[in-house]
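Structure in, sequence out. Go:
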């Protein structure tokens, strides 16, 4: 476990609603290695963001972490199970910013509308690094300059609505990196920006990862971004892992129908199509998950007598798949389906 920074084991998170119980995360397990990037991929409603919030012990009612372990190996000889800590206690509050930081999906709602950028940054820095305010201001300017924002001194006096989407995202990255965390959780950090700004933000995150030696948990629905960022990939569907492997295996030899369908829906520079392929149907209502394999209503490989609810099984070196036909499907992977 020397290279493992965070270990998620059999995590279960439910939301108890009047409409029924939503099993948002249903037995998910994975590891994040020191200095590496794990990409978590799936459509909206597949449990990616809930998993991230569970890591920080930030699941709020009507949600509840039912069981599992999230072992953090960052700052003591023995691992700390983060979900066993008091969600409002001093230890988890210190870990949330000092050890594990998070960039939320939409900085427009994450940043306060009534406080300046400088007030928000210095408050967090003073609290977690115990700096005097004048020193925290100088450090804030240094951070904003480091993430490529012009005139950072003037920017501290601005409010969130005065900044572009890309500038707000860079402010969030600067705030997340202020305590030099060992793990950065990035939840769809480029969803709200254009493709040019997206490329700049991704390059910035890669550069900062190398500089600080931090691990990244990158949550996205965009497999094209994962190809650029990740070392390993976990594909989620309806709260479960359906495939996990290193990035090359996922792109060159996908063995789950959902992974293959996601890959086929990516625009290709070498193939001209009149219309992109899509995944038929939608993610089912999480209060009414289909029996057997949850993906079967949308699956071209579905065989009624064969496709029961499969276990998450290893089919190769570090390659795990939740599909009874995984070996057969994996052998069908061809050069036309590769995107790298």
């Amino acid at each position: 476990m020397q290279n493992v920074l965070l270990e998620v084991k059999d995590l279960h998170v439910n939301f108890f609603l009047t409409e029924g119980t939503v099993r948002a995360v249903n037995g998910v397990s994975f590891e994040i290695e020191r200095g590496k990037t794990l990409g978590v991929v799936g459509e909206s409603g597949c449990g990616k963001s809930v998993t991230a919030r569970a890591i920080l012990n930030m699941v709020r009612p009507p949600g509840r972490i039912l069981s599992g372990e999230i072992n953090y190996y960052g700052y003591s000889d023995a691992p700390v199970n983060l979900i066993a800590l008091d969600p409002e206690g001093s230890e988890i509050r210190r870990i949330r910013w000092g050890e594990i930081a998070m960039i939320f999906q939409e900085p427009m709602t994450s940043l306060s509308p009534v406080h300046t950028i400088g007030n928000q940054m210095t408050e967090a820095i003073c609290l977690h690094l115990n700096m005097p305010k004048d020193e925290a201001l100088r450090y804030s300017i240094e951070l904003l300059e480091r993430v490529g924002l012009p005139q950072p001194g003037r920017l501290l006096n601005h409010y969130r609505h005065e900044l572009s989407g890309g500038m707000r995202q860079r402010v969030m990255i600067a705030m997340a990196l202020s305590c030099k965390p060992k793990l950065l959780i990035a939840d769809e950090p480029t969803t709200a920006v254009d493709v040019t700004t997206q490329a700049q933000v991704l390059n910035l995150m890669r550069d900062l990862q190398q500089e600080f030696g931090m691990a990244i948990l990158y949550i996205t629905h965009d497999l094209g971004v994962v190809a650029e960022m990740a070392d390993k990939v976990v594909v989620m569907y309806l709260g479960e892992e359906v495939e996990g492997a290193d990035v090359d295996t996922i792109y060159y030899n996908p063995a789950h129908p959902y992974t293959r369908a996601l890959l086929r829906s990516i625009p290709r520079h070498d193939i001209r199509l009149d219309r992109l392929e899509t995944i038929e149907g939608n993610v089912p209502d999480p209060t009414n998950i289909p029996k057997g394999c949850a993906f079967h209503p949308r699956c071209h490989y579905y065989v009624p007598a064969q496709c029961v609810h499969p276990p998450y099984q290893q089919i190769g070196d570090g390659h795990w798949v939740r599909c009874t036909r995984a070996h057969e499907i994996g052998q069908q992977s061809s050069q036309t389906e590769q995107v790298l």
